[in-house]
Amino acid sequence: MRKAQAKKSTGGEPRRLVFDSDLTIYNALEHKRVLLDALAGVEAVELDLTRVSEIDSAGLQVLLLAKRESLAAGKEMRIVAHSQAVQELLDFLNVASYFGDPLVIPARHKA
């Protein structure tokens, strides 16, 4: 299983986490630890979820927990890049506004 990779932050820059594996019940605990550890060390965390091909309710719960913990600590957590699976789930459950992140809607190509 591949893990989330943290890119080092310098100064006041946010730490960027790139998730290279799915956000599912099978790895939710590991992702929870990575996110909470990342939040503990910086003022802001950016999540790149473009490589997440599958997300379930456990994965969503991890994201919601991390967002709640960041707000409680006065820190910032942003999703800066969404995969189609993540975008569809956030839209379907109408929780995109909770994260407050811009969703980029790709232009459709004419067939």
Overview of this structure, please?
- The longest helix is centred in the middle third of the chain and has 16 residues, at 57-72.
- The model has no long low-confidence stretch (mean pLDDT 85).
- The radius of gyration is 14 Å and the shape is globular.
- It has 111 residues and is α/β, with parallel strands linked by helices.
- It has one domain: STAS domain (Transcription Regulator spoIIAA).
- The chain has helices at 28-41, 57-72, 84-92, 96-99; strands at 5-7, 15-18, 44-49, 76-82.
Largest sheet: 4 strands, mixed
Whole-Å distance between the termini?
36 Å
Rg, rounded, reads 14 Å
Low-confidence stretches: none
Overall 3D form: globular
Strand order of the largest sheet: 1-2-3-4
DSSP helical segment count: 4
Please, what is the average pLDDT?
A: 85
User: Structural class, judged by helices and strands?
Assistant: alpha/beta
Please report the total strand number as a whole number.
4
In CATH, the homologous superfamily goes by the name STAS domain
The domain tally reads 1
How do the SSEs run, as a string of H and E?
Answer: EEHEHEHH
DSSP helix fraction: 25-40%
Named CATH topology: Transcription Regulator spoIIAA
